[in-house]
Design a protein that fits this description.
Blueprint (H helix, E strand, L loop, with lengths): L1 E5 L3 H10 L6 E6 L3 H11 L4 E2 L1 H5 L6 E4 L6 H10 L3 E4 L7 H14 L3 E3 L7 H11 L6 E9 L19 H5 L1 H12 L2 E9 L4 E3 L9 E3 L5 E8 L4 E7 L6 E8 L2 E4 L9 E5 L6 E4 L10 H11 L8 H20 L3 E2 L32
Parallel strand pairs: 1-2, 1-4, 2-3, 4-5, 5-6, 7-12
Antiparallel strand pairs: 7-13, 8-11, 8-17, 9-10, 11-12, 13-14, 14-15, 15-16
């Protein structure tokens, strides 16, 4: 499948490194408002085209657009791609509000194209390993889940961190999608959330790059605490924070027969399980399949489309995650629990033998919902 990329920022390097190496993906080119930045990326990765998004969307050979723009324009770019008859894979979040997100999904349905969305860490062999173990009953029936992501914030290392503290970002929208998407994948639909949030500092200071030392405003809560109830009955507690000097990550599911530690720091890492017996010890389960990287969601989507299916990281799943995060914001404002109205179909685990480097399409059957 021939794909085009819109957005030549920092994250495009991670996508291009993987997408240009897959045997069943052809990257036709890259576009950006800054055409010089697009040209530099095209030269770096040997792409045949760089220029404006309008020129890229006009290419008949491009079937799928990878939308790597900032969250504020996710909807605008996605709608333009859909209008041009292209499938769309978007970076997270899907959009910044329910109305524009629904407009994207409705436009795709009307045009006969499909929407997929990050994060694709859920398709990495690390989390897929946990998914298969959980489905096989390794810890019995899940009952509770605890997730934690805390650190000092990205302004210390990111040369242009302002957008990460603007509407549509912060720890909830920047990091939260990784956790919420994994939560829904492993434990099913979210029924309701209740949350508290705070913004201890009205300004932050850029710590690296040409603008180091520049102060900028903080528009969102930088510490968020969430109670989550799943429709399955599982209850969860989560913290997402840019206000701790101590960096920590945790994703722990407790069930009727033990506890599972899910790796969420990327595409790598083993799953650990602790049995319910008093003398039980942690057992480590290394991922059995091939290593995967950012961009694997685009590959899985392309293979699913070629096989007549839908991507596991679907637009429907991304909408449900967005709905949950917006509900968290609403709960912070009102102090009351918020019920979710959206749904997301159950997602099957990827087969252990699914190989990103292989050209076979035999392992592409999906039940990840429709766009």
């Amino acid at each position: 499948m021939t794909v085009g990329i819109i957005g030549a920022g920092n994250i495009s390097d991670e996508y291009l490194r993987s997408l240009t190496g897959y045997p069943d993906i052809v990257v036709a080119g890259i576009a950006d408002l800054d055409v010089e930045r697009a040209r530099a990326q095209a030269e770096k990765y040997g792409l045949g085209f760089s220029g404006t998004s309008e020129a890229l969307l006009a290419r008949e050979d491009v079937e799928l657009i990878v939308n790597l723009t900032t969250p504020a324009v996710h909807a605008e770019v996605a709608l333009a791609a859909i209008a041009a008859g292209k499938h769309v894979w978007g970076e997270k979040p899907l959009t910044l509000d329910r109305e524009s997100a629904q407009a994207v999904l409705d436009a795709a349905t009307a045009k006969g194209v499909v929407v997929g969305n990050a994060p694709d860490t859920i398709l990495g062999e690390a989390i897929q390993n946990s998914h298969r173990l959980l489905a096989d009953g390794a810890i019995g029936t899940p009952r509770t889940v605890l997730t934690l992501m805390q650190g000092p914030g990205p302004e210390a290392w990111h040369p242009r961190p302002q957008f990460l503290f603007a509407r549509g970002a912060g720890p909830l929208f920047d990091i939260g999608p990784y956790y919420f998407t994994t939560l829904v994948q492993l434990l099913g639909e979210i029924e309701s959330v209740q949350a508290l949030g705070q913004r201890p500092r009205a300004e932050r200071v850029i710590g690296s790059g040409p603008d180091a030392g520049t102060a900028f405003p903080v528009e969102v809560s930088t510490h968020v605490s969430v109670l989550t109830r799943f429709r399955s009955g599982v209850v969860g507690t989560s913290i997402y924070s840019f206000d701790s000097p101590v960096g920590r990550q945790l994703f722990e599911i407790s069930g009727s027969a033990g506890t599972m530690e899910v790796p969420v720091s990327g595409f790598d890492g083993p799953t650990r399980i602790l049995g319910a017996a008093p003398d039980a010890e942690w057992t480590t389960f290394a991922p059995p399949g091939a290593h995967r990287e950012r961009g694997v969601g685009v590959l899985e989507m392309a293979r699913a489309l070629r096989a007549g299916g839908n991507p596991r990281a679907s637009g429907e799943l991304a909408y449900h995650v967005l709905d949950a995060m917006l509900a968290v914001e609403e709960s912070i404002k009102t102090g009351a629990p918020v019920q979710l109205k959206s749904t997301a179909e159950a997602i099957t685990a990827v087969e252990a033998g699914w190989d990103p480097a292989g050209e076979t399409l035999r392992s592409t059957t999906c039940t990840g919902g429709t766009s």
